[in-house]
Write a structure and sequence with these properties.
The protein is mainly alpha-helical and 456 residues long. The chain is built from 18 helices and two strands. Helix 6 packs across helix 7, helix 7 runs antiparallel to helix 11 and helix 12 packs antiparallel against helix 13. The N terminus is likely disordered.
């Protein structure tokens, strides 16, 4: 284990003190591995930066009864279960939607890139909104916008030479903005309300996110086959989003209003070397993950796999993502550092994606399985870094906003590059070599981010 601090400084002037996890644990004898000592005078229930940007005065915690916590945990997992259907569902019927709606080539690239780009654009807005309204209320609003976007997406505007395109663009953009807010708020809420169950809750909600992609990939095409309408296949995904919206309503309504104060001193994650290593790890993970969601099914279909089989392959791959995302956070939290696991899963993902593009087609199930297990674990450990590299929910939400703002903003270039390379070369082979390089870079930054130390 490396114990040399990356940077030394005071928090008072925006500088960040980088301490090792081992040093932080010493501050609280008998604390479990991976649990930092609480800061003096801190109300654990208020330490979500999305809600407050300075250390509040001591007070009662906001952790409720076990039943309330269980219900909250269930709701957070169900929210995660709706955060990737927008990507994988459109990809599953992309050829049908493109031909029946007469979508131009540029529109297909934009529709696969815009939602990922907006994940980065709207991520910094989450703390601003949550400081004003509270994290739970913003999460509720985000689910309402997501439901509305999913309903709007397949609408035919009836405009000459426009048809479905305006609604597809507007609905997809609304979904991307809503998912961005959810992405930032979920880790902070988990860190705040489940501080002793980070591995379990982190695994459950990242598994739910992977399951969301699997459901979108696996069920959209069968719904299209059953109905004969790609619009109905896309509308279908507004139903589970609306159900979760109703289930989460009591959680958001019963949260007390908090009087928020202006930001003053605190950890400046933007000046932290560890935060940047974690963020760049996230960038490269996002490039691969969202490219898989957007392009794996079209890649398989271009290689000669029929639509139903391509959807099944993608679904099986994502089921393996679920397995990886379920166990990887607990393993990462158990390990003294995460250098080895970060490196291995990054290499698995890059290799699995590349081999799915130009590896022997008869082994495509093997490549898809390698990709799924690697990608699910990679996504999970990248998100788990938010909780393992911070001391409290306050800093976790700071890091979450930075990671996901930069990570998804730059990570969206992956889907764009795949589309552009395909248009320029007429095949996906160049994209395969691109993601071999991306996988190697992710392994490098994952190794750096996996060292045993805290931000602040």
């Amino acid at each position: 284990m490396w114990t040399t601090p990356v940077a030394v400084g005071s928090c008072n002037n925006g500088r960040v003190t980088e301490a090792t996890n081992a040093e932080a644990r010493k501050q609280r004898p008998g604390s479990p591995a991976g649990e930092a000592a609480p800061q003096a005078g801190v109300d654990p229930g208020a330490l979500v930066d999305a809600e407050i940007d300075e250390t509040p005065a001591p007070g009662p915690t906001r952790v409720g009864s076990r039943r309330q916590l269980a219900y909250l945990g269930l709701c957070l997992v169900l929210v995660g279960l709706n955060l990737r259907t927008v990507f994988s569902s459109f990809s599953a019927v992309l050829p049908e939607a493109s031909s029946q709606a007469a979508l131009p080539g540029w529109a297909v690239v934009v529709l696969t890139t815009v939602p990922v780009t907006l994940l980065g654009v709207f991520a910094p807005l989450a703390p601003v909104l949550a400081r004003r309204f509270g994290a739970e209320r913003v999460l509720l609003g985000a689910m309402a916008v997501l439901t509305a976007g999913l309903l709007l997406r397949p609408v035919d505007t009836g405009l000459p030479a426009a048809g479905h395109l305006p609604a597809l663009l507007a609905g997809t953009a609304a979904c991307g903005a809503a998912i961005a807010l959810c992405n930032v708020l979920l880790p902070g809420l988990v860190k705040r309300d489940f501080p002793h169950r980070l591995g379990l809750m982190g695994g459950l909600y990242t598994t739910a996110i992977c399951a969301s992609a699997a459901l979108g990939a696996g069920f959209t095409y069968p719904v299209y086959v059953a109905t004969g309408e790609w619009t109905l296949a896309l509308w279908f995904w507004a139903v589970p989003a609306a159900v979760v919206l109703l289930l989460f309503l009591p959680v958001a309504v019963r949260q007390p209003r908090i009087r928020h104060q202006a930001a003053r001193d605190g950890v400046n994650v933007w000046r932290s070397a560890v935060a940047w290593q974690v963020t760049l790890f996230m960038v490269l993970q996002a490039m691969m993950s969202f490219s898989v969601f957007a392009w794996l099914a079209p890649i398989l279909r271009e290689r000669g796999v029929d639509g139903a089989t391509a959807g099944l392959i993608v679904s099986v791959s994502i089921v393996l993502q679920m397995l990886g995302s379920l166990f990887a956070p607990a393993l990462a939290a158990w390990l003294r550092d995460q250098r080895a696991i970060n490196t291995v899963v990054a290499l698995m993902t890059g290799a699995g994606f590349a081999l799915s593009i130009f590896g022997p087609l008869e082994l495509v199930w093997v490549w898809a399985g390698l990709l799924g297990l690697g990608q699910g674990s990679l996504t999970a450990v990248a998100l788990t870094m938010i909780m393992l590299r911070t001391r409290d929910g306050h800093t976790a939400a700071h890091l979450s906003g930075m990671m996901q703002g930069v990570g998804y903003g730059l990570g969206s270039t992956g889907t764009l590059l795949v589309g552009q390379l395909h248009q320029a070369t007429g095949s996906f082979t160049a994209a395969g070599f691109l993601f071999l390089v991306v996988g190697l870079l992710a392994a490098v930054f994952g190794y750096r981010a996996g060292r045993d130390r805290y931000i602040g």
